[in-house]
From TrEMBL, chain A:
Residues covered by region (Disordered): 80-110
One term under GO cellular component: TRAPP complex
Record-stated family: Belongs to the TRAPP small subunits family. BET5 subfamily.
Claim: Endoplasmic reticulum is one of the keywords in the record: yes
Low complexity composition-biased segments: 84-93
A Pfam cross-reference name: Sybindin
Keyword check for Transport: yes
InterPro entries according to UniProt: Longin-like_dom_sf (IPR011012), TRAPPC (IPR007233)
Signal peptide residues on this chain, from the entry's feature table: none
Name the record gives this protein: Trafficking protein particle complex subunit
GO biological process entries: endoplasmic reticulum to Golgi vesicle-mediated transport
Compartments where found: Endoplasmic reticulum; Golgi apparatus, cis-Golgi network
Subunit annotation: Part of the multisubunit transport protein particle (TRAPP) complex.
From TrEMBL, chain B:
Keywords: Endoplasmic reticulum, ER-Golgi transport, Golgi apparatus, Transport
Subunit annotation: Part of the multisubunit transport protein particle (TRAPP) complex.
Name used for this protein in its record: Trafficking protein particle complex subunit
Major localisation: endoplasmic reticulum
Tree of life domain: Eukaryota
Compartments where located: Endoplasmic reticulum; Golgi apparatus, cis-Golgi network; Golgi apparatus
BP terms from Gene Ontology: endoplasmic reticulum to Golgi vesicle-mediated transport
GO cellular component, one term: endoplasmic reticulum
Xref: SUPFAM superfamilies: SNARE-like
Entry similarity comment: Belongs to the TRAPP small subunits family. TRAPPC4 subfamily.
Length: 227, 136
């Protein structure tokens, strides 16, 4: 029993957050220009090309005017990966090992499958099609809950505001709706909705930040289905 | 505990057999069923590529809030889809028997054209005996 990963999509079909745990087959870094927003997952965002570093709109990692990542411990908006603001218990929050992507082409990382941006689009496409299919078949406003294959199970949770949380787990896992609900009502509300430094619904960047990542990580690692 | 419907999808994604049983889902036109079967065929192919670990089969069970779809993929690529209530536990055994009936009454029928819609009385009666009489 385990949990593989979590995707969060907003109502504009964009992936705004990604977090993985026990994946043996990790996606490759996203392609540059593949449509992946910055601030989704530090480990999987496209590598900034050396000359154009910082030219991408709104990447506070490399912006010279970035004053957010101070170590004052007040509030850090975006996950920097190298900084750990004081005040956050990072002991339990081991960030996933960064994908060793040699060379700009994102080197074939250990037999990984698709680039992350394409994978995210496929996931969104599948849940969208299944939602429509379920609606057509039932004739009601019924939503799709999960599907299972021989090696994994995908769970969907939709919020009223149009955010969709998708979790991949072991095929024998029970419904993870309550987990995704508690991710939404806990870390997501606290560190995204109530965080003035995270532009929600911006369509230009994701919602990833250090507190959110650490808090989701703690929540998921504490589950009995997570081993 | 109810079986709502049975679909047989050929290896190209075309719906070759569709039958409704218990009420519970809306009745769609045959054209809409064709579209849904094609969609399912595509989704099935994508789901096997999304595996976080190693190679995976396509979706086997798809659950909604009040019903589920159980999918049996035969080695030749024909998909058998059973729409049932969530509590139905015998879906995969029923599908296995449907596959047997398909092999006996459809594939051994010299008048059946492969990959074309199934119009075989023998298959209809085998299915009716297995699941019950349909309304269509």
């Amino acid at each position: 029993m385990t949990i593989y990963c979590l995707y969060v999509f907003d109502r504009h079909c964009n992936c705004v957050y990604y977090h993985d745990w026990h994946r043996t087959k990790r996606p490759k870094r996203a392609n540059d220009g593949g449509g992946l927003l910055p601030g989704v997952s530090h480990a999987l965002s496209p590598l900034p090309s050396s000359s154009a570093a910082g030219s991408a709109p709104g990447t506070p990692f490399s912006s010279p005017r970035n004053t957010l990542a101070s170590n004052s411990g007040v509030l850090v908006a975006f996950n920097d990966g190298s900084q750990s603001p004081s005040g956050v218990p990072t002991s339990s929050a081991t960030p996933p090992p960064p994908v060793q992507a040699q060379g700009g082409a994102g080197g074939a990382a250990s037999g990984a499958g698709l680039p992350f941006d394409e994978e995210a689009k496929l996931v969104y496409g599948v849940i969208l099609s299944l939602r429509n299919m379920v609606k057509r078949l039932s004739g009601r406003d019924e939503s799709f809950v999960s599907y299972r294959t021989s090696t994994y199970k995908l769970h969907l949770f939709e919020t009223v505001s149009g955010y969709r949380l998708v979790m991949l787990s072991d095929p024998n896992a029970e419904s993870l709706r309550f987990v995704m609900r508690s991710i939404y009502t806990g870390p997501f509300l606290e560190y995204v909705v109530r965080n003035p430094l995270v532009p929600m619904d911006s369509r230009v960047r994701g919602v990833d930040n250090e507190y959110l990542r650490a808090s989701i990580d703690r929540l998921v690692r504490g589950l009995s289905v997570f081993q | 505990m109810a079986i709502f419907g049975l679909w047989v999808i050929n290896k190209a994604g075309g719906l070759v057999y569709q039958r409704n049983f218990a009420d519970g889902l809306v009745q769609l036109t045959s054209n809409e069923y064709l579209v849904l079967a094609g969609t399912l065929h595509g989704i099935h192919a994508i789901t096997s590529r999304l595996s976080p670990t190693g190679t995976s089969s396509g979706a086997q069970v798809i659950e909604a809030e009040t019903f589920k779809m159980t999918i049996l993929l035969s080695p030749t690529g024909t998909k058998f889809v059973l729409l049932t209530s969530l509590a139905e536990t015998s879906a995969s055994t029923v599908l296995q028997k449907v596959y047997e009936a398909y092999a006996d009454a459809v594939m051994k029928n010299p008048f059946h054209t492969p990959e074309m819609p199934i119009r075989s009385e023998g298959f209809d009666t085998r299915i009716a005996a297995l699941i019950g009489t349909g309304h269509t």
